[in-house]
Inverse folding.
């Protein structure tokens, strides 16, 4: 069994969803956690969260996903929930160019409250509405190159790309965690055999 005797998961990660209001953050959350689509989802007031367990790389990852309100008036509440996040998923709507243009503002906003090495990814929602697309692929490529942040197209309505996006970020977090643990073990081994030079 890949489950440890003391707990039912190998990793626990906190992931926070941010982005403009009405881009579909809550719908992405519910689609990922419950695999349903709620068309008339009420605008989030403050924060909402769900738990989901995934198996990635033969490891059990328990994910705590926080959905934050996009409105400016809730900003002082929601920023408190950035603390302890393993990853930030910034959401935009591919049928709303302004929400894509605002990604830079969100990156700047979250960077005030999180460590620089925390993983960030963009979820561009509503890829099922390709005929209404307002963000072209050249804009996306330019953004990825300039910001060094991956953009993945998803649809909360159909579920397209949702699991794939979360699997991508979870695998990245697991690899990062394993690498850090390996480095720590090497350092501990070196320290155990350390002898100060004679003075």
């Amino acid at each position: 069994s890949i489950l440890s005797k003391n707990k039912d998961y190998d990793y626990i990660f906190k992931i926070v969803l941010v982005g403009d209001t009405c881009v579909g953050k809550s719908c992405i959350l519910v689609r990922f956690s419950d695999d349903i689509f709620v068309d008339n989802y009420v605008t989030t007031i403050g924060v909402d969260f769900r738990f989901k367990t995934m198996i990635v790389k033969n490891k059990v990852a328990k994910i705590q996903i926080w959905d934050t309100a996009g409105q400016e008036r809730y900003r002082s509440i929601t920023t408190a929930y950035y603390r302890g996040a393993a990853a930030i998923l910034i959401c935009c709507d591919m049928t709303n160019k302004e929400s894509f243009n605002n990604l830079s503002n969100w990156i700047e906003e979250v960077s005030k409250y999180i460590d620089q090495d925390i993983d960030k990814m963009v979820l561009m929602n509503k890829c099922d509405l390709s005929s209404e697309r307002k963000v072209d692929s050249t804009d996306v490529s330019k953004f990825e190159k300039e910001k060094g942040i991956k953009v993945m197209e998803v649809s909360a309505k159909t579920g397209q790309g949702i699991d794939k996006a979360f699997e991508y970020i979870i695998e990245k977090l697991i690899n990062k965690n394993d690498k850090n643990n390996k480095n720590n073990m090497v350092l501990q081994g070196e320290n155990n055999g350390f002898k100060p030079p004679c003075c």
User: Anything to note?
Assistant: The first strand starts at residue 11 and ends at 19. Strands lie at 11-19, 47-56, 59-68, 87-93, 119-125, 150-153.
